[in-house]
Amino acid sequence: MANTRSARKRVRTSEKNRIYNRYWTTRCKTSAKKVLEAINSNDPELALKRFDDAQSALDKAVVKGVIHRNMAARKKSRLTKAIRKIQEQA
Predict the structure, then answer these.
(1) In three state form, how does the secondary structure of the chain look?
(2) Backbone CA torsion sign across 55, 79, 20, 7
């Protein structure tokens, strides 16, 4: 347990930040999984709609400092590539 006053405050602050960051990372992962789910069901229209939501969640997480911008760009790029692949098949 923290001994000094500032250390106790730091524990409280870091716990708040942990919960906040977990919320945004979970939201990003869930939205990406929904896109992949639509891709696996070979539904390009639904995949595009869900991709917009995923892209929005990733961009918001970057602005809030939860994830790095390159990580968000990589995830968006990979999802786009997968969507293009099923669009070519259809």
Answers:
(1) CCCCHHHHHHHHHHHHHHHHHHHHHHHHHHHHHHHHHHHHCCCHHHHHHHHHHHHHHHHHHHHCCCCCHHHHHHHHHHHHHHHHHHHHHC
(2) negative
Domain boundaries, the chain: 25-89
pLDDT digits (tens, 9 = 90+) for 9-26: 999 999 999 999 999 999
CATH 1.20.58.110 correct for 25-89: yes
What's the pTM? 0.89
Q: Which residue has the tokens 């390009």?
A: 44
Among residues 68, 81, 86, the alpha carbon closest in space to that of 28 is found at 68
CA 6, CA 27: separation in Å to the nearest integer? 32
Whether residue 66 contacts residue 24, with contact meaning beta carbons closer than 8 Å, is answered with: yes
